[in-house]
Amino acid sequence: MSSSCSFWLHILLVVGGFFFCTFEQLEGGNAAAASAATVTVGNISRVEDAVDFRIYYGQTFKVIKNLVDGKSYLLIQNNSRMATRTKYCTARIKSFVIPLSNYSLDADYNFPVSFFERAEWIKYLGVFANMETRANQVYDAIKENYMCLMKAAASKTTSFKPTVAWMKYDNGEWSFTKDTYKLKLVEDAGGENIDNSINKYTYNTSIPDDLDEFHAILFTVDVVIDETNTSDPVGYTLSTFLQNIDFDDQSCCTFLTNQSLWRYDKRIQNNTTLDWNDGAVSQPQLVLADLIEAFFPSGNYTTSYFRNLAKEGVVSITPQMCNRDTSIAMEPTIIACN
Hints:
Blueprint: H1 23-27, H2 31-34, E1 53-57, E2 61-66, E3 72-77, H3 82-85, E4 93-98, H4 115-119, H5 121-128, H6 132-154, E5 163-170, E6 173-176, H7 180-188, E7 192-193, E8 202-204, H8 208-218, E9 223-226, H9 238-245, H10 254-257, E10 261-263, E11 267-269, E12 273-274, H11 279-282, H12 284-295, E13 307-308, E14 315-316
Parallel strand pairs: 3-4, 5-7, 5-9, 9-10, 11-14
Antiparallel strand pairs: 1-2, 2-3, 5-6, 6-8, 10-13, 11-12
């Protein structure tokens, strides 16, 4: 668990997904296995939204299989006969007797699925510990809150949806995001992405025609999300952005005059590690609530992961800021929705 206490289990972000494996493949046609005492599996999890993993339940075992790398895990209940004699350990499949009380898994934040899908990976973790009921409760609470917030955003009474540009600067070039999950977040929060007809991917600030075209697009934008990578989030300020964007006349840009310029580096640890890559991916309802506030400012909501670059600096998080009992599983943060 990160010292930020921003999410309950880092491990739920493990890359990949799992598909069905047949009972015959697992039992190998062994007639003796068929006569083994039935062990109640108990609570189960069903994958609802995530597309990269699947779970299969037998009478005394569970299987998860990764749709990305093809690896499988056979999880055998510890009070079954199967647990004493069935072992799989190959390049493609590994077996464990469960429940496990202490384990770790590799994590990768870069697989291209939505925050909403990533949150369901808590069900994956629950399978290893026979805690599907708890995992289901957490995900159901997150999903219900997310859907409520999305509905509330859609009902905002404005004359038009704010146009949002999610973009970054790298080696003298600006580019607009093509990541589907980021574009979907904008839509779920009640915003509108820049026109799909913009098919030029990068704009070189040292080429006058590129810079003019880039500026022309920005003049139509209401909100900017700047995801430029930096080794110094503390030192990345409005001045940094303005220098990179190379504007002579800032008064013509709505997002600048309205101070609607955002970054997702509000919470950092050790001045470099973003909580965006930690807590945010496990609680998408907070990300959505942040964006709704960015698009439709109310003034009575404090964002968790996004900071207004024109108004805010970063927040350095430390273990001392964790004001809860870490021996108790963390509950998802539910945002008031009406």
